[in-house]
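Hi Prof. W.,

I finally got the Radical SAM domain protein prediction working! I wasn't sure whether to trim anything, so I left the full sequence exactly as given:
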Amino acid sequence: MKVSNTTPKPELYNFEVGGKYFVLHSSTGTLFEVDKKTYDFCRFVAELGWSDARERFVMEYSESDWDSLINEIKSDESLRRVFFEPKPPVKPYLGIMKSKISSLSLNVMEDCNFACVYCYGDSGTYHTPNTRMSPEVGKRAIDLLMGEGKKVVNLQFFGGEPLLNFPLIRELVQYAKQKAEEYDKVVTFSITTNGYLVTDKVIDFFLENNFTVTLSFDGPEDVQNHNRPLRGGYPTFDVVAKNAKKMLERGVKVSVRATILPEQLDRYYEIYRFFVDFGFRSVHLEPATTSTPLTKEHAKLVESALKKIVMDELEHYKEKGIVYTKLREIVHMIYSNTYRHYPCGVARSYFGVSADGTMYPCHRFVGMEEFVVGHVDDFKWENEFIQKILHHTVDRRPNCSNCPIRAYCGGGCIYNNHYYNGDIFAPDEFHCAYMFALVKWGSWLYSNLDEDWLNKVFSRSPQRGVRAEESDEAKTQKPTEVIESV
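And this is what came out:
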């Protein structure tokens, strides 16, 4: 095999972080940790082409070093694919594509006892104050989930504040269990709550039904009380913190989701640290979607915090696991060889359902009439918007198809893309800058984790390099069948 400037440049993304060198093959998502010499070899080849790279490389090293690396590549089939196979052409999908639903988010209550300053749902009312989902609508949604769902399905209760309609939640859980038996499926339950109405009775119910709870809680007292007051402006920190402690002490599977205003991003690490010290073992931090556009400068603030977070995670991962959810996702994708064809399950395996049964791509689009994709009584995969999502994997999105880290991103939240850019397939600049930082520091963290711990937690032995080659099974999977998140 001769190598010349007519040999296509490999699609490699080379980066140095924390004193380590990494090479990412963008077409497959294969990630390698390498030494400085191999790093320079890959960098020169990707930037200059093969012949010019050789000349540049031997200026710093030697011809024998070059030949040794070339021979290593030629002798390994997987490396030959990385270095010598051109980027495969991306062909459009033809015809109707179908998927399977894995989760429905039910707006069981479109009203809220909080008045969060950044709420995208008109204070939780979605412009229809005090609207409760009826048992009939909820049960028809469950029927749809069972009929169109995967073997394991999830029923999520959302709002507004869903615990304002706790009796309906109890009724729907029992109905879902009954239907799961009839359909020979496994059903799991989750809820997103502000935590204010969590009582011992509610906790008993969560434990009895193995609920996963996402607690919307924004952090230290001044942040929580500013961002998430009760209607009327009254503080909420004391009650939410007390109820959070109670759930943690009683063993509820509870994670925290904090929404951070743009002007609070300089406190990103402080907020993360608050939750770790509080006792949470799953912490998700998300910038608020507001009228203030998020920029690369905001991303720099988050990356500065991320460097500290990574060090904390490395210190406590054997005791607490990886607490920061986005880092845990990256580590899991590196370990399990996952290529993220889509950013999430939006309009493919996950849908939001309003109180009246109208279906939307996800919970964040509820109430936006231009994004209606059906009704629980009349759901069809042929819906134009659903087909648009299914046909546009990250490799088929104009803004993302040549991004070097697309395998780990999937294209960004389509709600945020629409909100900031008016285009569901055009990520905002903050997201892109943040994802580059996350991939870099996630790679560094992965390379420092104990292999036995990884095998125990993720139950699969890694293959060569840092990131295994894409498996034959993954290569043949249709995009709608590929696991896209942890």
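Residues 296-320 form the longest helix (25 residues). Does that look reasonable to you?

Thanks,
D.
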